[in-house]
Structure formats: structure tokens, C-alpha cells
Amino acid sequence: MIDIEIEDNLARLQEFWSRADVASTVSNTQLANMQKNDALRMGPLPILGHGTWQTLAASVPVALRPEEIRRVHRFHAKLDEIAQRKEHHDGPLTEQAAYL
Questions:
Q1: Over 50: is that where the pLDDT of 3 sits?
Q2: What string of H, E and C letters represents the secondary structure of the chain?
Q3: Widest CA span of the chain, in angstroms?
Q4: CA distances (Å), origin 92, targets 31, 77, 85
Q5: Considering the entire predicted model, what is its pTM?
């Protein structure tokens, strides 16, 4: 179930990235990069889930090897960092995103 949550989060981030990719309307590389960066900065960050990871925390040591636990923990920590950076730039997250 944790792998499904990770796949869902990665798909949401890929869609967010893809929307920024198509935001570029010029062929000039520098201007295209600026437009993409603006789209990433201004676009709403998708809602990223931690629910399964948090719910199954008690059974994680039995179900996963130590390296898998570290990898999943790092993944969720990176999701938190993305959200924190976006919040720092945009202000507080929406009520729906803050619920996660």
C-alpha cells in the first residue's frame, strides 16, 4: 500500500511538472526556463499524501527492510520539504492541503 501512495504522489508531481513544461511559449531557452520556473512557482502544488505511511507506521518494521524504511522516510521528508518551500514562497497552504 505504501508503494501505491508513493506512485500516486509521484504521478501528481509529474503532472505538476508537465503543466510547467507546457507553460513555456517561446523557443528561447533562457526565456522558456524563466516561464517554466514561474509556472512552477505560481502553480498550485498538488496535494501530496502521507496517510498510508503514517497509518501503517506501527507495522513498518515488520513489513519492510531497514533500507526500505529509510528510502520511504526520505521520500516523505522530501515531499514535506517541497511543501514547506512552496508555503514559504506562497504563504500558508490551503486548508485542504494543511489537513494532510
A1: yes
A2: CHHHHHHHHHHHHHHHHHHHHHCCCCCCHHHHHHHHHHHHHHCCCCCCCCHHHHHCCCCHHHHCCHHHHHHHHHHHHHHHHHHHHHHHHHCCCCHHHHHC
A3: 53
A4: 29, 19, 11
A5: 0.64
User: Residue-wise over 36-47: b if at least 16 C-beta within 10 A, else e?
Assistant: beebbeeeebbe
- What nine digits make up the cell of 94? 490551503
Could you count the other beta carbons within 10 Å of the beta carbon of residue 5?
21
In the block, cell 509529474 appears at 14
For 46-90, the pLDDT digits (tens) are 888 888 878 887 887 888 889 998 998 899 899 888 888 877 776
Amino acid, single-letter form, for residue 10: L
